[in-house]
Inverse folding.
C-alpha cells in the first residue's frame, strides 16, 4: 500500500489546499471542544449563582431576625402576624372612601 503524498510536507500542503483543509479541521475541533467544555462551565457558573443566592437569602433572614429583635425586643418573626388577618392593620379608613364618593357625586351634579 503506497501513500498518496510523497512526503509529510506534501501531506501538510496537500497540493495547495492544505490551508483550507487544516483550518477547517481546526475549526471543527474547536467547535467540538467547546461543545464538550461548555456544559461543565455552565454547571460551575449555575452552582456559583445558586450558592450566592443562598448566602444572600441567609443574610436577609439573619438581618430580619436582628431587626425584629431590635424593634420588638423579643426576636420573634412577623410571619405569624401576617398570616393571621386579625392582627393585620387596615391601611385605609372607611371614611376616606365615602368622602371620595361624595366628591364624585358633587362633580357629576
Amino acid at each position: 500500500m503506497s501513500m498518496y503524498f510523497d512526503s509529510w510536507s506534501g501531506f501538510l500542503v496537500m497540493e495547495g489546499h492544505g490551508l483550507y483543509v487544516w483550518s477547517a479541521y481546526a475549526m471543527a475541533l474547536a467547535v467540538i471542544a467547546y461543545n464538550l467544555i461548555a456544559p461543565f462551565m455552565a454547571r460551575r457558573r449555575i452552582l456559583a449563582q445558586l450558592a450566592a443566592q443562598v448566602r444572600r437569602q441567609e443574610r436577609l433572614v439573619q438581618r430580619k431576625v436582628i431587626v425584629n429583635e431590635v424593634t420588638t425586643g423579643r426576636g420573634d418573626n412577623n410571619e405569624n402576624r401576617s398570616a393571621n388577618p386579625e392582627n393585620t392593620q387596615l391601611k385605609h379608613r372607611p371614611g376616606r372612601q365615602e368622602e371620595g364618593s361624595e366628591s364624585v357625586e358633587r362633580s357629576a351634579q
Summary: The helical segments are 8-13, 18-72, 79-83, 94-108. The longest helix spans residues 18-72.
